[in-house]
Amino acid sequence: MMLLLFLFSIDPRYHTQDEIAHELDSIANHYPAITKLDTIGYSTLDSLPIFALKISDNVMFDEDEPSVLYIGGHHAEELLGVEICMYMISDLISKYGIDSAITYWVDNRELWFVPLMNPEGHGVVMSHMDTIWRKNKRDNNNNGVFDLDYDGVDLNRNYDFYWSRGGSSDPSDEFYRGPYAFSENENRAMRDLALSQNFAFCITYHSARYGLTEVIYYPWHWSGGYSADYPFIRTVADSLSKRILKDSGVGYYTALPGQGLQGNARNWFYGICGTFTFCVEVSTTTIQPGWMVDDICQRNLAGAYYLLERVEQSGITGCIYDSLTGEPLSAEVIVQGYYDPTLPPRRSNVGYGRFLRILKPGTYNLEMRKHGYVPITFDGIEVTQEQMTELNVMMTRMGGEDPVSESQKKIEVSPNPGRNSVVIQLHPEIASLDIYDTCGRLVKRFNNPAGSVVWPCVDEQNRAVAEGIYYLSGRSGRESTMEKIVIIKNSTN
Question: What is the CATH number of domain 411-487?
Answer without folding.
Answer: 2.60.40.3080
